[in-house]
Amino acid sequence: MTTNKKDIFKIISTLIFFAVNLNNIVYGGNVYIDQNKKPLLDYQVIGEKVEKIYGVKLNRPVTVIFKETPGGRFNCESNEIFINQNDPLQKKLVTIAHETSHLMHCQITNNKSTNEELRFVDEGLASIIGQRITGDEDSYKAQTKEESALERDKGNVSFELVKKWKKYFGTGNIATSNWKAYRVGSSFIYYLIYKYGEGTPFDFLKYLERSSFQEALLKTTGNSEQEIEVAWLEYIYEQGKI
Ligand SMILES: [Zn+2]
Questions:
Q1: Do residue 119 and residue 235 come from a single domain?
Q2: Which of 14, 65, 66, 130 is most buried (most C-beta within 10 Å)?
Q3: pLDDT digit string (tens) for 191-234?
């Protein structure tokens, strides 16, 4: 590196350092703020739990937009979460945890988690983590077993199907979308945990930043996509009997 380049590098590093710290000073390290930039301290602990589970710091602050319409949403580019202001507190908490997990997936995979073919992983894992932090994961897991076993019986579970997320799940319309698709996505995550250990879904996400679905799966599990698919369907079948 020439002296000139070194100087420019130093200036840029210093600017980034100040930008990050200025953000921390202005927002006091808060995870969440509302659209008026007011800190949302009631939700702080959710962000901290998400960080602990994934072992990664969230880009702060996350802006929470309260809207009148049902359903949660996220936007990785603007680092925003949208929740229904009319939901009861418990539902708001689950939604915040779920949507924060989506932002975390974007951070870890450099936004690849929002690619069509990875949406089933994105929703499957966000649903589990949302329930783990703020809801009832045992009931959610039981629901996952039941629904994914029924979907498998109908021939509705395969990588080919779930990777075409818009067709498989729908557009997100509350009434017309196939919400069982979330549980099928979660069954894949639960399979990875069951077979390869608790940390596997997080390792898998990290590999996804630089690798295709198939390569990331091979790096995480040592098995091919075809092998994993057979074993995942078998797992759903066995779990459905319990
Ligand atoms: Zn979601």
A1: yes
A2: 130
A3: 999 999 999 999 999 999 999 999 999 999 999 999 999 999 99
**Residues 15 and 97 reside in one and the same domain:** no
How many angstroms separate the Cα of 230 from the Cα of each of 90, 152, 188, 191, 196?
Answer: 37, 12, 11, 11, 15
Distance of alpha carbon 182 from alpha carbon 198, whole angstroms: 19
- Residue 31 falls inside a structural domain: no
Residue type (1 letter), 73: R
C-alpha distances in Å from residue 175, one per residue of 24, 126, 179: 41, 21, 9
Residues 202 and 98 in one domain: yes
Contact 232, 217 (CB under 8 A): no
Q: Please tell me the distance between residue 126's alpha carbon and the centre of ligand 1 in angstroms.
A: 6
Residue 85 lies in a domain: no
Report CA(193)–ligand 1 centroid distance (Å).
20
Per-residue model confidence as pLDDT tens digits over 162-177: 999 999 999 878 788 8
| Same domain membership, residue 107 and residue 14 | no
Look up residue 126 and give its two tokens: 């966000």
Answering whether pTM is above 0.85, one says yes
Q: Which DSSP helix (H) or strand (E) runs through 120?
A: helix 119-134
The answer as to whether 44 is a domain residue is no
Q: Measure 73 CA to ligand 1 centroid, in angstroms.
A: 7
Q: Does any domain span residue 36?
A: no
What is the C-alpha to C-alpha distance for residues 39 and 57, in angstroms, rounded to an integer? 18
Structural domain of residue 176, as residue ranges? 91-241
Q: Measure 72 CA to ligand 1 centroid, in angstroms.
A: 7
Q: Domain total for the chain?
A: 2
